[in-house]
Amino acid sequence: MADKKPKGKCCLVGAGPGDLGLVTLRAKECIEQAEVIVYDYLCNPEMLKWAPENAEIIYAGKKAGAHTLTQEEINALLVEKALAGKNVVRLKGGDPFVFGRGAEEAQALAAARIPFVVVPGITSAIAGPAYAGIPVTHRGKNSHVTFLTGHEDPEKAGSSIDFGALAQLGGTQVMLMGVERIESIAREMLAKGMRRDLPVALIRWATTGRQETLVGTLENIAERVTKSGFTAPAVAVFGEVVALREQLNWFEDRPLSGKRIVVTRTRTQAGVLSEELRALGADVIELPTIRIEPPNDLRAFAELVQEAHAYDWIVFTSPNGVTAFFDLFYKLYDDAREIGGARIAAIGAATAQRIKEFRLHVDLQPEEFVAEALVREFRKEGGVENLRILLARAEKARDLLPKELSALGAIVDEGFAYRTVPETRDETGARRRLLEEGADLITFTSSSTVENFLALDLPWPARMQVASIGPVTSQTARARGLEVAVEARRHDIPGLVEAVRKFFLGKSEE
User: Dihedral of the CA atoms 249, 255, 258, 260 (nearest 10)?
Assistant: First the structure.
């Protein structure tokens, strides 16, 4: 008789309040090892990029009036996948045991005798107020804090929330999932004796670039919600600590706060640009338009890499080319000295930095990050006549560099290290977000990102403007009918971020 397939296990993982930086190391480790991931509406979908490529990703989002799966169906799904021997990760916004129904999922797993672990997460009940400049406790303001859910009608018979007791208790009250019922909840609080002028704050999409905070009193907060169109998801804070926001608001007062910016770099490269924009307060939508693949003729490139020692110069035009070259080089050789006497040239600071990470010196790097500048530098060096040069570059890249170097008398071999192909996947729902919410700015870091974004044929949001990393990318954008509002003077990621910062700073001063 064949052995039964062993059961898998399930990790109930707190995905934190939204800021990717607030996800725990343990949570990231679980995602990296997952075979199946079941995630919620309030989870930051960017964390899915940590999952293995073959992982099964299942969206089980629930928001008011729209349930992809019921709670019972989610429980059954977790049990089903684990019984099939899978390593399942259940990603839940915030903390799984703080109004997250994680305990119910744990009970279902326990009843099926499936091993499970719980990975706590930072709850929005604390992180949301903190990011709005509101400490939930303060020595001079209160001595206790109460957490409650607003996900029930306080007027119904048998409500589990005793608002009279809360009025007597005082301190700070933090409520999750109650924006839609704020009018009836505020009315009930007032009826049970809470002060009419009690400070109240609602924090929407807390800890993310979409964060908004609405402040009022218990008497007028419902009216302000209606007037402003303030909607869920939001955390509500009731108490004197709300007044500290005037002094402690640190998150919503950054240069790019309130600006939504699209990043079109590859999934693996988007991180640096996204992080720098988020650090300035931007709400970033990562919408990769390209991905990096091996070249069509990998053998031909490998043969050139194997003969690297025979060249006078090796020229790298991008970090991707450096990575592809040395990945192959160290499969062929185990000693960096096998590169021989070849000197190394690089276009761009990021390319040079990637070379240095392989413990090699960059002999030539033009100040401008374009091919034309490198040709000028070679002329200054005394020319390249009869020198052998290997170009490690992308397929279908501009032919200016090999033509110009050949015209100077160099013997040039083009090594196609990689190719860019359109990114067809949209696991994080970025395209849907762009269509529904629009954007203020879209960033292009290469001609291929321009071409492939336009190939998606998405409707262009009404107020979205274009930011380009440099003149070559700008030329491609303009040739395709786009108006470039921002062009980086320094043609790298820090230069692009600085140009975007100055652009919005200038607009705010107009």
Answer: -140
Q: For residue range 80-132, what is the model confidence (pLDDT) as tens digits? A: 999 999 999 999 999 999 998 999 999 999 999 999 999 999 999 999 999 99
What residue has token string 């705010």? 508
Burial of residue 251 (number of CB atoms within 10 Å: 0-12, 13-18, 19+): buried
Residues 418 and 432 in one domain: no
Task: Report the C-alpha gap between 262 and 286 in whole angstroms.
Answer: 6
- Do 114 and 184 share a domain, yes or no? no
Q: Bridge partners of 364?
A: 345
Q: Are 326 and 416 found together in one domain? A: yes
What is residue 509's predicted lDDT score, i.e. its pLDDT? Answer: 46
**100 within a domain of the structure (yes/no):** yes
CA distance 289 to 265: 7
Residues of the chain with pLDDT under 50: 1-2, 153-155, 157-158, 509-510
Residue 45 is encoded by which pair of tokens?
């979908």
Q: How many domains does the chain have?
A: 4
- CATH at residue 210: 3.30.950.10
Burial of 6 (0-12, 13-18, 19+ CB in 10 A): exposed
Which residues are known catalytic residues?
A: 40, 62, 177
Is residue 39 in a domain? yes
Using the 3D structure, point to which of 403, 422, 441 is the last residue of a domain.
422
What confidence score (pLDDT) does residue 159 get? 59
For 386: left if phi > 0, alpha if psi spans -120 to 50, otherwise beta; the answer is left
The reply to whether 107 and 220 lie within a common domain is no
- Statement to judge: residues 393 and 336 lie in one domain: yes
H or E element at residue 169: helix 163-169
Domain end, chosen from 396, 422, 448, is at 422
Q: What is the pLDDT of residues 216-259, one digit of tens each?
A: 999 999 999 999 999 999 999 999 999 999 999 999 989 999 89
Q: Specify the pLDDT at position 62.
A: 66
* pLDDT tens digits, 156-206: 544 578 889 999 998 999 999 888 899 999 999 999 999 999 999 999 999
Same-domain pairing of 136 and 70: no
Query: 435 and 448 share a domain?
Result: yes
Domain of residue 328: give its range.
Answer: 293-422
- CB-side neighbour CA atoms (13 Å) of 205: 12
Q: Do 90 and 109 meet the contact criterion of CB atoms below 8 Å apart? A: no
Contacts (Cβ under 8 Å, ≥6 apart) of 384: 312, 313, 378, 405, 408, 409, 410
213 and 172, same domain (yes or no): yes
Dist CA 300 CA 413 (whole Å): 11
Do the domain assignments include residue 2?
Answer: no
DSSP state of 140: T
CATH number at residue 391: 3.40.50.10090
Taking alpha carbons only, the member of 25, 84, 35, 80 closest to residue 57 is 35
pLDDT for res 465: 97
